[in-house]
Amino acid sequence: MDPNSLAAGLQALLRPGDHIWWGQATAEPLTLTRALVKHRHALARHGRLSVFVGIGQSDTLQPAQADVLDFFGYAASGPHRALARAGVLDIVPSHYSHLPGLIRQGTLRADVVLVQVSPPDKEGRYSMGLVHEYIPAALDRARVIIAEVNPEVPWTYGSRHLTVDEIDLLVDAAHAPISLERSAPGPAELAIAGHIAGWVEDGATLQMGIGNLPEAVVAALHDRRDLGLHSGAVGDGIAALAEAGVLTNARKNIDTGVGIGGILMGSERLRRWAHRNPQLQLRETSYTHHPEVLASIHKLTAINSAIEVDLTGQVNAEVAAGVYVGAVGGAVDFLRGAARSRGGLPIVALPATAKDASRIVAQLSGPVSTPRSDAGLIVTEHGVADLRGQTLSQRVRRMLDIAAPEHREDLERQAHALLCQCGAAFVAVAGTA
Fold first, then answer.
1. pTM score, two decimals?
2. How far is CA 171 from CA 147, 162, 366, 369, in A?
3. Where is the Acetyl-CoA hydrolase/transferase N-terminal domain (predicted)?
4. Which of 172, 200, 229 is the last residue of a domain?
């Protein structure tokens, strides 16, 4: 379909006030999203349109487009931080696991869904390819489904496929899928990965957040056996573990022999491994993040990152320097699930400093994304603070031990005032700085 025909097709299908959804990050259907923003004035000629914003990996959305588009969403990562800084992104501070339910009950409107799909199989089924997450819920509620077929998108197994009868407009992709290449881990990330690897047992089931750090941890696990996968995000490191015979899913007590994910966030290597691979299934958020499912998985090892963690274990994963840069996401779901899992490990990992400022703090500079009651293992390059079952004063001592040495003395002084405010006994922590 030529660009003019695509614009006309969009114009015929969209209505004023429509709420538009598409796959986030690598699953963004670039042909459709770029046509949407290019022709936004014609498409919104009778009224504004709303766009749901997830994790960003492209420069498709820009603050200037707020002239006719309203942006709402749960994430402001990557290029989408520009929307937050410009004050044109209305944040939905919801747990990621709640999104499908909010869509299905109509609290979050989903009128139009733009999807990137694989070529159909011999039965005529278009695979969702790189993503499930909250998209099946949006598809179930949508008035209009517009799909672009991308020959570089893998045909993946999952709980939802599309047939041509469900699609209102079908176009050929004009762009390759977004690839997510990770940079080489630095010394701090390698040290953190080494600390975490020492806790991961054979037969553990992995959940990873996004970013370089989780990938560094995965790379440190090649000497393990029979690891499993149950995660929202799946990166290149998982493909490497599987190809090395380390990730077999053989010891999983549920979904035995099958790795479960919500979105493929990697490069062509990951897409190649996932293509027609029956040992991988993409599932909706209502399954990947379901509290009972997570709690039932033996040795669930949840590895997530943060912007900062305070001395009592509270986690801020949303705001840095006064700007919304993250999301509530699924960390709380996975940390709680891992805490209830038999042999599970709820882990939050982060470098001890950023731009010479401590990321272990006495008081958070942003919201509490994960409460201290859900804190498990906090890991920096300086070690592991196991906060499970610890009192406030015990937590302070352990957190000081993993803070950067140059910040420990100042943190210890602040800790005294912090514990007094909490009404807790301050147990001397001399010698920890």
1. 0.94
2. 6, 14, 43, 40
3. 13-172
4. 172
Which range marks the domain in which residue 19 is found? 3-172
Residues 107 and 200 in one domain: no
d(CA 57, CA 352): 26
The number of domains in the chain is: 2
Query: What's the rounded Cα separation, in Å, for the pair 208 and 53?
Result: 21
Rounded (5°) CA angle 354-359-362: 145
The whole-number pLDDT of residue 311 equals 96
Q: How far apart are CA 428 and CA 72, in angstroms?
A: 47
Distance in angstroms (rounded) separating the CA atoms of residues 293 and 282: 15
| Strand 360-361 with 308-310, pairing | parallel
Is 394 exposed, middle or buried (CB count within 10 Å of its CB: 0-12, 13-18, 19+)? middle
**By the 8 A CB rule, do 329 and 279 touch?**
no
Closest of 359, 356, 254 to residue 305, by C-alpha: 359
Lowest mean pLDDT among 294-308, 326-340, 383-397, 409-423: 409-423
CB distance 129 to 117 below 8 Å: yes
